[in-house]
Amino acid sequence: MLTVGSLVAVRELGLSVLVTGPPEALETELSWVHTTELPDPSGYIGRSELVMTNGLWMPEVSPTAFVEACCAAGARGIVFGLLDTTPETPPALIDACRRANLLLLQLPIEVPFAAVTHAAANIVADARRNPLMTTLRRAETFANTLAAEHGAAGVLRVLRHEHPDLPLALVDRTGALLAEAGTSLTAGDRTVTTTALMRKPPPLELVLDAGTATLLPVGAFGQPEAALLCLRPAAHLSEAELSALSQAAHFLVLDIARRQAVRASEERFAHELIDMIISGTGSTPDITRRLAAFGLDGGEALVVLAVSSRGDTTMPELAAAMKAVLSERGIPAMIAPGPHDVVVVLAWRQPAGTLIDWCHGLAADLSPYCPTLAAADPVHSAGNLRTALLEARRTSQVLGRTGHDVTVARLSDLPTYHTVLSSIEPQMLQHLRSILTPLREYDAKHTDGALESTLRHLIEYQGHYTKTAQALHLHVNGLYGRLDRIHALTGRDPRTLEGRLDLLLALEADALLAL
Q: pLDDT tens track of the chain, all 515 residues?
């Protein structure tokens, strides 16, 4: 920054201060230096300029008038250049500057004004070049750090070396703490950060347990993959600190991309193992060997979960969140996101009777993602994983159709008919679904039919005619007419328990085949 003080510091100029002016005069930024010998330079001097003169105007105007003109133009001060004819600064000019509280400098005879202008240009150039050089050096250090595979932690160390007072942390969209330096985020802080990253656009600041933090999104396009947090309000950060943080956020994208590539490779390997288990093509030793790559012992107790979301969360996002939560708990797991659910095979080291309570705790940790957790009872051999996997997925399918009051369940916790349907062959499911065919054909031909909808409402209200009629905006006699037609078309009387049970199984089989 160009200031009077920075010019005085250039020894070659030999500037000396005769009148100090206001207390901040030496450190206030100058817009430029201006040479003039006009008796009234007020129309030509720019605001915050330093006026340089040899006093050639003195035969025409008094020093007081010249100083007043400089002050009127907003000049920061005057530099009087000595000449052979004026080897000392005129006392009248010194007195005028003191009365006006205007800074006055003296320039030696042997130093031309051009030297002052040249020095000012060098100071401005250095002020612009130094931040650029700092940025380039920092970029080289970031690149070397990432090339040495020190990752996000290495980038934060570089930042802390340059700005040791900045508390820093990197949190991804799943709430996983990827790196931190000089701070310790709580689980609540990470949840707040995850929620903020889901907003479009993310906020610039967050209120955390540790105080107000500045948030810099990591990821230039689309939804950010992570947040670089600095536990200082943005207003308390200098321009240099903000620049360093912004540059670090751009380099951290590279580490995030590397992590995503590793995760994609792990997911492909996990998908292959899931397909091997479901198809039954893999031997128990082969499956056991592949599980070991995920830190799982095929001879110890294993639990299979099928996790899905009732919100807008994608399965890859849910898988990443699951991985972060299990890693934090120190639980090895294989995680494979699919189109409708995330399959998790994890090491079970708790009492078997605590499985459901443990799953509820896991669901609470994943609450921002609106999860449903379908679990199968622990198995003690990799050879039993197929049964557990199919059971968990069947349970997940059922949970996907239930009300929001059920988020965690095993197949044995669900109504018995779900267990029955899960064990029968697809041909029998097709047979059960065919019971609905006459109703659908009738509804397709008659705009006022709505027989299938009537059936669903009747089952929902557990055979209560008045509530069903009200929900359908029908007179109860109109409902009776529809029920008679359902009976005639399907051969099942929905007014009897036996008939409703057959029709319920038909609807459930249809939903199961539609998945």
A: 899 999 999 999 999 999 999 999 999 999 999 999 999 999 999 999 999 999 999 999 999 999 999 999 999 999 999 999 999 999 999 999 999 999 999 999 999 999 999 999 988 888 777 667 777 788 888 888 877 778 888 999 999 998 999 999 999 887 888 898 988 888 888 888 988 888 888 899 999 988 899 999 997 556 788 999 999 999 999 988 998 999 999 889 888 888 877 777 888 888 888 888 888 887 888 888 888 888 888 888 999 999 998 888 888 888 888 988 898 888 999 999 888 899 999 999 888 789 999 999 999 988 888 899 999 999 988 888 988 998 898 888 777 765 556 789 888 887 777 667 766 677 887 888 899 999 999 988 887 778 989 998 998 888 899 999 998 889 999 899 999 999 999 999 999 988 888 888 888 888 767 65
Strand bridging mode 49-53 / 77-81: parallel
Which CATH number is associated with domain 149-257?
3.30.450.40
CATH number for the domain whose boundaries are 282-415:
3.30.70.120
Question: What's the CATH class of domain 4-121?
Answer: alpha beta
Query: Could you give the CA distance from residue 207 to residue 417 in angstroms, rounded to a whole number?
Result: 49
Matching fold, domains 149-257 and 282-415 = no
Number of neighbouring beta carbons within 10 Å of residue 226: 26
Give the start-to-end residue ranges of the domains of the chain.
Answer: 4-121, 149-257, 282-415, 426-514
Closest C-alpha among 367, 405, 448 to residue 195: 367
Smallest CA-to-CA distance from 55 within 25, 87, 26 is with 87
Residue with tokens 């700005």: 163
3-state secondary structure of 343: strand
- Fold for domain 426-514? Arc Repressor Mutant, subunit A (1.10.10)
For the chain, the residue count is: 515
- CB atoms near residue 110 (< 10 Å): 8
Q: At what angle do helices 476-490 and 451-460 cross, to 10 degrees?
A: 110
